[in-house]
Fold this protein.
Amino acid sequence: MTINGDGLYLVAGLALLLGAVLPRLLRRYAVSAPIAFLGAGLLLGFAVDHHRLTPIAEPGLTKHLAELTILVALMGVGLAIDRPIGWRRWTVTWRLLLVAMPACIAAIAGAGWLLGLAPATALLLGAVLAPTDPVLASDVQVQGPTTGEGAEAEEDDEVRFALTSEAGLNDGLAFPFVYAAVFAATKGALGGWAFEWFAWDLVGRTVIGVAVGVGVGWLLGKMTFDAPSRTFRLADAREPVLALAMTLGVYGLAQVLHGYGFIAVFVAALTLRAVERSHDFHAELHGFVEQLEHILTWGILLLLGVAITAGLLAPLTWAGAALGSLLVLVIRPVTAWVSLARTPMRRSERWVTAAFGVRGVGSVFYLAYAGADFRTDLPWLWATVGFTVVLSVVVHGVAATPLMRMLEDRRS
């Protein structure tokens, strides 16, 4: 049976109803909502024209839907973080970004090259699978902003803070390495583009993204909380749509200026919090973004399940499965564990932080973005990335509830 256009409204309504019920239903069990939605997508694939709903058939749709989902999630995690940004306060974040992430990219690329991949393809796979996900990792992240009298207190859960702040920044920081893979595939030898890549794609565009985020976040923060006219003081008007307006506007401005929009959005959210940290309007902004993020995430997972039913994983080889398994079970845990040495974290907190490098929507976006330059290997790349995302969703989804409870019991 194939569902027609009108029937899709029924499917959408049932999916939203399922999304409202599942988190409550699964709260006490070691099964996350993403696992359930992925399974629902697998079943839905038998009822719809699934051959048209695959990343390879619809790369533009895949890219833009994943892009919007990430943007909304980045705004959400930026608004959720209470801790003011600083070198010492964010030590665990910088370790994960500057040590663990490049090490992950190098390890995946090296393993892929040893298994027979072309150097550019191996580097792309490493870059695509490097970022942890701000979308599918909500069970192990900071749950929301603290406002009112307790707003100045830092998060006492170093694991949730580390995973939230890491996911907020490394989606944007993966971009330079994706560009490096594209340049290696299209421009050839490293010497011809290495300096330009380092000066512009790694440093220049990152600086522009940070500058746009700080500037726009500060201006909107002053307008929202301190504008002389009540007309422009959005905190008084209680307009949570500001969060979406800022997300799209900041991203668009950063992209127009050739900066990294993902970084700009996250930094803008942090800056907005810093302007007036204790105002309860932050909770309303976060709640609005969180609901939108949930809807987009459900859609992504359903479509991923449909694509798998359509044969997304058919080109998967033992080498691709080995690379995905190595990343989730060995490479990420080991590199993150090493990067967090000599931090204030306890041993159990280091292991949990290292283990929860959730892979998800960010990987889908980057492969859709760069896939046109790797047409020969594209089916295999999608199969490998799809397998890795599914493995991560299942492994981390099952482990999240018991491991986070274990940490809470140890603290208490």
Notes: The chain has one domain: 60-144+157-411. The domain at 60-144+157-411 is CATH 1.20.1530.20 (Na+/H+ antiporter like fold). Confidence is low (pLDDT under 50) at residues 150-154. The two ends are 53 Å apart (CA to CA).
